[in-house]
Design goal:
single chain, 229 residues, alpha+beta, Rossmann fold, TATA-Binding Protein, five-stranded antiparallel sheet, four-stranded mixed sheet, 9 strands, SAM-dependent_MTases_sf
Length: 229
């Protein structure tokens, strides 16, 4: 109401300032009074090449609504129920889904936990459960260590100690992490199977996250099928 060009012009100025400040600020956020302004602002963010943003709406009573947009030049991702909590926005303007889920039939969480643990510990990455009996764990990798090319490179190592050294290095400098993820296993509500949820916490490569999720699903489901046979 007090800025020439209204709220869109005001937030565009914020975006321009964020181009200079970059990661000196973790997240830039703003509330907006019009849903149409959200679409305009997200389009501007996409045009400048930014890939990490969030949108949400606030509902007060039965009629009053406000909207918010947040963006970051960093690689930490909020939960999907936070970053995509909005109605009426075109699908292509929503941020990339930071969560992936798959179902494992006829297997309780404890059994899936063992198979998933085996699959991840076989890779040169940093992986650990939150505690000894937890069904939630966190992992980090510096690169794609599950591709065929990476596996061939691992098998070409002189001995198992080489892989151990690689894993130890992955525990180190967090700034070099290419992907950070959280895995949670829950009992399925309507079947005797389990639900595995993978959340993308850190990273900038959407293809890498999709590749990791696909690999994890294949490994776990294949292990379960072999176990059944």
């Amino acid at each position: 109401m007090v800025t020439p060009g209204g709220e869109v012009a005001f937030v565009k100025r914020m975006i321009k300032e964020s181009l200079a400040l970059r990661e000196r600020v973790g997240w830039y956020t703003t509330m907006l009074g019009k849903l149409s302004s959200v679409s305009t602002i997200v389009e501007v963010l996409r045009e400048i090449g930014l890939q990490n943003w969030a949108v949400t709406e606030f509902v007060q009573g039965t009629k009053t609504r406000r909207w918010a947009v947040g963006w970051s030049w960093g690689d930490m991702h909020p939960r999907m129920d936070v970053a995509r909590r909005i109605t009426g926005l075109p699908k292509h303007l929503l941020p990339f889904p930071s969560e992936f889920a798959f179902h494992v039939s006829s297997a309780p969480p404890d059994e899936v936990r063992g198979r998933l643990d085996t699959a991840l510990k076989d890779l040169p990455l940093n992986w650990q459960w939150q505690h000894a009996q937890a069904t939630t764990g966190v992992g980090f990798a510096k690169q794609n260590v599950w591709s065929r090319a990476s596996r061939r490179k691992q098998h070409g190592s002189s001995d198992a100690g080489t892989r151990g050294d690689e894993r130890a290095q992955d525990v180190g400098d967090e700034e070099e992490v290419a992907i950070g993820f959280k895995v949670q296993i829950e009992g399925a509500k309507e079947t005797d199977g389990s639900e595995v949820r993978v959340r993308w916490m850190k990273g900038k490569d959407t293809v890498l996250f999709e590749s990791f999720c696909g690999m994890l699903k294949r490994k776990v489901t294949t292990m379960m099928m072999q176990n059944d046979s």
